[in-house]
Write a structure and sequence with these properties.
22% of the residues lie in helices and 34% in strands. The strands form two sheets. The chain has a six-stranded antiparallel beta sheet. Strands 5-6-7-8 form a four-stranded antiparallel beta sheet.
């Protein structure tokens, strides 16, 4: 009976270890982003985004999803859209993010010249040649192209919008990452 208990304890330990490793791997795996349509797409004049790394702020409005604590409520979100590459005006040439830092909800700044960053920030994030977003509250930094975290105390990157259309006159931001509508 003693060996049965030892074997059972051993297998329980192995199972718990496997489950623990699986949970850690799941937490570190890239998240599949779910986007929800905005109540009304935000439109930004195309002329304001005529060259790469030109940025423009906008305000979007969505509706909290049915799973939210307060479902079907209007949610206003500040964002910024940036042209990230030259060429014909197509949705993939523009990236948009929520400009509210997920750390403590401070409004991030667009830094066109990364050489202007504080030397301590540069020491943490390394050589950066493209513009970045910087949270002025705690120096969290993010890439402009995807809103990914570069450094600072923030636990994740910036929430994202999806550019859904580009016409001869406007860039249309029509969807937002669902979590924004749950947490803001």
């Amino acid at each position: 009976m003693y060996s049965c208990l030892r074997r059972r304890t051993f297998f329980e330990g192995v199972l718990l270890s496997v489950l623990g490793l699986g949970r850690r791997a799941w937490a570190q795996a890239p998240r599949v982003l779910r986007y929800r349509p905005l109540s009304r797409p935000a439109t930004i004049p195309l002329a304001a985004l005529d060259v790469p790394w030109r940025a423009r702020r906008f305000r979007a409005q969505g509706v909290s999803p049915p799973t939210a604590a307060n479902p079907d409520q209007p949610v206003r979100v500040n964002g910024m859209v940036v042209r990230v590459s030259e060429g014909a005006a197509r949705p993939e040439r523009f990236k948009a993010v929520c400009t509210v830092c997920p750390h403590e909800q401070c409004e991030v700044d667009f830094i066109a010249d990364p050489a202007a960053l504080d030397p301590l920030v540069l020491a943490e994030i390394g050589d950066v040649t493209e513009p970045v977003y910087l949270c002025p509250c705690h120096n969290s930094t993010f890439t402009v192209s995807e809103g990914k975290r570069l450094g600072g105390p923030v636990p994740r990157g910036l929430y994202r919008f999806r550019v859904t259309a580009v016409t001869d006159a406007v860039v249309e931001v029509g969807e937002v990452e669902e979590d924004v509508l749950l947490f803001f």
